[in-house]
Write a structure and sequence with these properties.
Elements lengths: L1 H19 L13 H10 L6 E3 L5 H7 L3 H9 L32 H18 L14 E6 L6 H12 L4 E7 L2 E2 L2 E2 H4 L5 H4 L7 E6 L3 H16 L5 E6 L18 H8 L3 H11 L5 H23 L34 E5 L1 H15 L3 E5 L27 H5 L4 E3 L4 H13 L3 E6 L9 H8 L2 H4 L9 E6 L16 H4 L5 E3 L4 H13 L4 E6 L10 E3 L12 E4 L4 E5 L3 H16 L3 E5 L2 E3 L3 H11 L2 E8 L4 H13 L8 E5 L8 H7 L3 H13 L1
Parallel strand pairs: 1-2, 2-3, 3-7, 6-7, 9-10, 9-11, 11-12, 12-14, 13-14, 17-18, 17-20, 20-21
Antiparallel strand pairs: 4-5, 8-15, 13-19, 16-18
Helix pairs in contact: 1-3, 1-4, 1-11, 1-12, 2-3, 2-9, 4-12, 5-6, 5-15, 13-19, 15-16, 20-24
């Protein structure tokens, strides 16, 4: 224990030296936290348990098997860095073989992912149809954070779900009394997070001096055993110190007086623990000196190896944005020309539902959850009620057919849904989750942008999270107003790592959702509420193997005079306007339904513009800064030699959507707006 405590501190010291020599570019230390972290590593099982550490957890990672060389490879940004291949800052831990899941910079996002990772044990153990169950039965999930991070809302969401589901998560709060410069009494009501959470059911709480490795080991062993016995989660509240500044970008002298820092130094495990070992006769001074000498040698050798290691080749930056193994744009996902239709034409809702049923039969790893998605949470009512199945009935009947362990309701907490899904997907399950309204997706955006989209790239392809996020969006509702009409696809299409899909017909919805589920990338699947039950976009069921590849647009109307590039609910309005122009003046308009917003089918767009030489981009979002603006810019860049007129846009006003019908109609692009733009462009 002492050797590991000292090794952790000396690696911190070496990194600080290297930073001052401009040989590395960032440093954040685990100094003062080593006692409880070495104890945690000794109480847990590497490559058996799962680990969601945070940036202070150097000593834990050393204890479970990461080497000093591997840590310093991260510090210098080496190609062989097992944490991220030089893609992340140092102390952002990740190690596939040790089950240390890639850590990101945002504080607190790991909580819900750890809950999802632990929930994977629960789902695997209960799903009978799964032959391969990568679980042991008593593995636990370690998740740590500093005291300041418990101010984040996701901490409370994680505690709620872990306690409610009795999940085996061991939470370690390393309380050094400061969140950068903000002290505990400002962060936490009453100054003690363990007292605040004392009433959570099924939660074991241990409070301990985290500078004492022996007491910490005893507390962590009790906590681990509680979790292994599946009694529920555990919280170890460890009181530690922070003898160094928050990071090298911070100077604690500006806000901590000398007397406070001197008081802390008396508890420093690097000095207090070896003195105790000698005083109690466990070690001699000579043995302690020998350990010090060996640690210094180990750190020096690791430093030399790291500094001599090659940097990543620049072009490798383009790798691992998406899956290298499964390409949803490829021909293997294109069965669009061979549908096997059965039954009468039906709605988008029904064909989305039918796709999920087919896929859940095919793949027992698929889980469906979100707010209101189950038929009923109280299973005893299933025989008495028809069932909810989502506010739009897209998931109706799935729980009844596949059981409550595969289809279930979540708390009303969007970050909870996405964060848990990331953890579940990391363990090999396939979450197909629902965010009820696009307008309320924003609490989950942190998880979507900083965690889900980045997982594969930031871990250098060691981890991935192929989650499908279904979300309803859009206006044209009569009464949708500001908070049930939003259409901001661009906030997702602008994120590398996400696939963004937006069908306008029932048939496309079925084929594209099937591709999304079989893909190995995270997918945002946008479903327009207005299109759910329209009669004009109905289709028969195309069969259980009908797929449309991503990045394949559809020419829904052939034309020669001009092109309209559009998607979603604007497609039908464009078709009506195009028909009007043809009937009134013989103007032949070609209409392209993008279907896939990221990736985009530039080949189809370019081919059409080479033929028509004029183009309108029509979209439901606000005119300025929206998704269509990027498409227009791409067209100007790619197709300029063929353009006989400026690229024109038709979109919503630069406002929000109003409640009154006349307001909504004025704000959203209508048939006449599209027809007028077509006339103007044709006349140019």
């Amino acid at each position: 224990m002492y050797r590991l405590i000292l090794l952790s501190r000396r690696i911190d010291d070496k990194e600080i030296q290297l930073k001052r020599q401009n040989k590395i570019f960032f440093q954040i230390s685990g100094a003062g936290h080593e006692g409880v972290l070495v104890a945690a590593g000794k109480a847990l099982r590497p490559s058996y348990d799962w680990f969601y550490p945070y940036y202070r957890d150097r000593a834990l990672c050393l204890t479970v098997g990461m080497t000093p060389t591997e840590m310093l490879l991260s510090a210098v940004g080496a190609a062989d860095d097992p944490n991220s291949g030089g893609r992340q800052m140092p102390s952002h831990w990740g190690h596939k073989e040790l089950n240390i899941v890639s850590q990101s910079s945002p504080t607190g996002t790991q909580f819900l992912q750890a809950v999802g990772c632990a929930e994977a044990w629960l789902r695997y153990s209960r799903i009978d149809g799964l032959k391969d169950k990568p679980i042991h039965g008593d593995e636990i999930v370690y998740c740590s954070a500093g005291d300041g991070t418990t101010s984040e809302g996701e901490w409370w969401e994680a505690m709620n779900s872990a306690s409610n589901l009795k999940l085996p998560v061991l939470f370690l709060v390393e309380d050094n009394k400061y969140a950068i410069s903000v002290p505990i009494e400002v962060q936490t009501a009453g100054g003690s997070v363990s007292k605040l959470v004392a009433n959570f059911p099924n939660l074991l709480i241990e409070e301990v001096d985290g500078c004492d490795p022996i007491a910490s080991y005893a507390a962590l062993t009790r906590a681990a055993e509680w979790c292994r016995q599946r009694k529920g989660p555990a919280l170890v509240h460890a009181h530690v110190i922070r003898p160094y500044s928050h990071s090298l970008s911070d100077d604690e002298i500006l806000y901590r007086p000398p007397r406070e820092r001197e008081e802390d130094s008396k508890r420093d495990p690097v000095t207090a623990f070896p003195k105790r070992l000698i005083d109690e006769g466990v070690a001699t001074e000579a043995e302690i000196e020998a350990i010090k000498a060996q640690v210094e040698e180990d750190v020096q050798v690791a430093t030399e190896m790291a500094l001599a290691s090659p940097q990543p080749k620049p072009e490798t930056a383009l790798q691992w944005v998406y899956s290298p193994d499964v390409d949803p744009t490829s021909e293997q996902f294109d069965t669009e020309d061979d549908p096997h239709f059965t039954g009468e034409p039906t709605t988008m809702v029904d064909l989305l539902n039918g796709c999920m049923k087919d896929e859940m039969i095919r793949d027992p790893r698929i889980l469906v959850f979100g707010q209101d998605v189950a038929d009923v949470s109280r299973e005893q009512y299933l025989k008495e009620v028809k069932g909810k199945g989502g506010v739009f009935k897209v998931t109706w009947g799935l729980q009844r057919q596949f059981g409550s362990d595969r289809v279930y309701n979540s708390p009303l907490a969007e970050a909870n849904i996405i964060g848990r899904a990331v953890g579940l997907a990391t363990r090999g399950l396939k979450p197909v989750v629902e965010i009820q309204f696009f307008d309320y997706i924003w609490p989950a955006y942190h998880q979507l942008r900083n965690e889900l989209a980045t997982m594969r790239w930031r871990s250098n392809n060691a981890f991935s999270a192929p989650v499908v996020v279904r979300v309803t969006y859009g206006g044209y509702l009569k009464g949708g107003s500001v908070y049930h009409s939003q259409t901001g696809a661009v906030v997702f299409t602008s994120v590398p790592g996400l696939r963004v899909i937006c069908p306008s017909t029932a048939l496309d919805a079925n084929g594209l959702l099937r591709t999304a589920i079989r893909s190995d990338d995270p997918v945002i699947f946008l479903e327009h509420k207005h299109l759910y039950r329209q009669t004009y976009n109905k289709a028969p069921n195309p069969g259980p193997n009908f797929m449309i590849p991503f990045g394949k647009a559809k020419v829904v109307r052939e034309g020669t005079a001009l092109t309209v590039v559009t998607y979603g609910a604007v497609v039908q309005r464009t078709l009506v306007a195009a028909k009007e122009l043809d009937e009134q003046g013989g103007v032949s308009v070609e209409v392209i339904d993008l279907r896939s917003l990221s990736p985009v089918d530039w080949e189809t767009i370019e081919a059409s513009i080479r033929k028509t030489n004029k183009v309108i981009v029509a979209y439901e979002d606000a005119l300025s800064w929206g998704y269509g603006a990027e498409i227009a810019a791409g067209i100007a860049d790619r197709c300029f030699p063929w353009l006989d007129a400026p690229v024109k846009r038709v979109a919503s006003t630069d406002t929000f959507v109003g409640y009154a019908p006349d307001l909504e109609e004025f704000i959203l692009p209508q048939v006449e707006d599209l027809a007028q733009a077509m006339r103007e462009l044709h006349a140019f």
